[in-house]
Amino acid sequence: MPAPSPMPRSTPPDPPAEPQIVAQVHVDSRQTTPEIIVHELTSNPPYTRDYLLKTSLEDQIRLLLSQAFAVALSSFFLSFVLLWAIFMHLIHTVPLLIRPKKLPKYDWDTYDWGSERISRDMAYYAQSTGFDITDEVVETKDGFLLRVHHVTNPKAKDDPSGKGHYPILILHGLFQSSGSFVTSEERSLAFWLASQGYDVFLGNTRCVFDMGHKTLPRGDPRTWDWTIRELAMYDFPALVDYVCQTTGHEKIAYIGHSQGTSAAFLSLSKGMNPELGKKLSCFIALAPAVYAGPLTRGFPFGILRRLNWTVWSYAFGVLDFIPIMKWAFDWVPSAAFGWIAYIMFSYLFNWTDSNWLKRRKGKMFRFTPMPVSSASIFWWCGKGGFADRRCIMDGEDHSPWYDERFPPLSIYYGGRDYLVLTEPLLERLEKIEKDVRVTRVERIELAEHCDFYWAADAVEWCFGSFVEDIERSRAEQASSRISSSSSSSDTLSSTN
User: Fold this and answer.
1) Residue 439 is inside which H or E element, if any?
2) Residue 231 gets which letter from DSSP?
3) Residue 210, Cβ neighbours under 10 Å: how many?
4) Which regions of the chain are under pLDDT 70?
5) In terms of CATH, what superfamily is 62-94+114-483?
6) CA dist., res. 307 & res. 313, Å (int)
7) What pLDDT is attached to residue 43?
């Protein structure tokens, strides 16, 4: 992607020790080869490593003014969309005020959580349900620092094998974070899995929870010069490797939601990092974001996908996408922020709270939205991006994307999810991806995009199935080791 204005060419950060891809992958319109990835940045941001010394004052002022203009314009755009979203929300809410619906009651919802405060502190939610969360840091090969939240159960008994309990890595979707998996009390996905005896790691992508780069400041455009491609090349492998190394397990279970599935599907492709599949005992894909749904053709996506990068960079800048969202996250009171965020995202993504426990809504949206790069949202929504091309890779490519190294795959999708389409993915898996073993496909008719962990009935809908998928893959893994050991013993006996 070209820079928004002609500026001195930047000095790229130190290349990783070894390239992570070996062939071209059609992730976007930019060329993707090992040489390009290792030695050149994706959008050639204007600053050099010592930009205060090497960049002229004129260039600094030009960038400052362009960013100020982008902040003002994007804030106006967000305000317009928010006001329209509030208006539409009121239209739908007024009839409910006249004839209110009776809220469902659940037998398990017996504890009085009314005194629980809405917080941005992950540890607060863990401790209130009897679990512990530790903050850990993972460094990617391109120098980004990622926040990992490690959930532990103090009541869990030690594993006699000495390796600890079986590890699960969970990765969030776009604009979200690991906080999405801890706001449903003891029925939160993270805590529920920990209560079943698993060692749960909640991953986060770059720049979430104010994490940055090892050497670059957050104000440097290179800190924000990334898209889903970098998440697939660097973040996802770094998280998987970290969990394997920390726990001592050769394989781990992986659960991804939305963008978390996109990063995995890209990373495990033959053109990027298929060897990583050998470290996953199973891949549980929730609302897989591989093909775009009909919602991406409506407002405002229909307008955004007409913007090329030059126009986009002037409108939204080259740093984080609509910075006012981060300021609101930091300074707006929690209850008000949660209410505003829900109205905004329910309008944009057609989410409703029909399947949620209403008292949890403020907590859910205290961790949404999280900072995302402008370049990344352009990849999803801009001209030539996901909403425009309708697929995360080349949808017209009828050759297999994956080989036999792809882990056993389970897919869960909702009948009321209009943001992504799962049927084209299922068709491709059946007709083209012969090496991918699909162990489960489960369509939950009432489920929307985030209901696999936010729905009040999520435990009954799918959590038990997650455990079945994980344990089935573990049993197959153990059986494979026994067979391999027996074959080795037979070979040794025959030679003797």
Assistant:
1) strand 438-444
2) I
3) 11
4) 1-55, 114, 158-164, 481-496
5) Alpha/Beta hydrolase fold, catalytic domain (3.40.50.1820)
6) 9
7) 42
